[in-house]
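Saturday, quiet lab. Running sequence design on the structure tokens for the scaffold JK sent over.
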């Protein structure tokens, strides 16, 4: 049997890296209290815990940009959530659709 790797797998495995260049143009919108919000807890690369309030319809890219801003990390990182931890792969998903409402997230 020939094992083939789906090219999309390679893209997905690299898509979990949120780089400063990727997040540079991501607009961080103020929280709109008229829409559903959530607070996520993030353990940063440095081991610091930060809490971020964000709209549930904001994208994972927007969340990652806030994590980068609030953690002060200027290098590429990944985010994982859940137990067992799973890397967050699709930055275009909403926070809600990515299953991150009320989540504990680890920045790696």
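Result came back. Writing it out in full:
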């Amino acid at each position: 049997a020939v094992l083939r790797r789906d090219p999309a797998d390679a893209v997905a495995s690299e898509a979990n890296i949120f780089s400063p260049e990727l997040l540079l143009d991501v607009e961080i919108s103020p929280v709109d209290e008229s829409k559903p919000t959530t607070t996520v807890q993030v353990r940063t690369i440095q081991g610091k815990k930060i809490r971020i309030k964000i709209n549930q319809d904001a994208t994972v890219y927007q969340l990652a940009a806030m994590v980068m801003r609030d953690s002060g990390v200027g290098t590429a990182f990944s985010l994982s959530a859940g137990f067992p931890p799973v890397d967050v792969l699709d930055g275009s998903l909403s926070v809600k659709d990515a299953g991150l409402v009320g989540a504990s997230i680890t920045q790696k």
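Notes for JK: Residues 29 and 69 are 13 Å apart (CA to CA). The chain has a mean pLDDT of 87. Ask whether to fix the surface positions before the next round.
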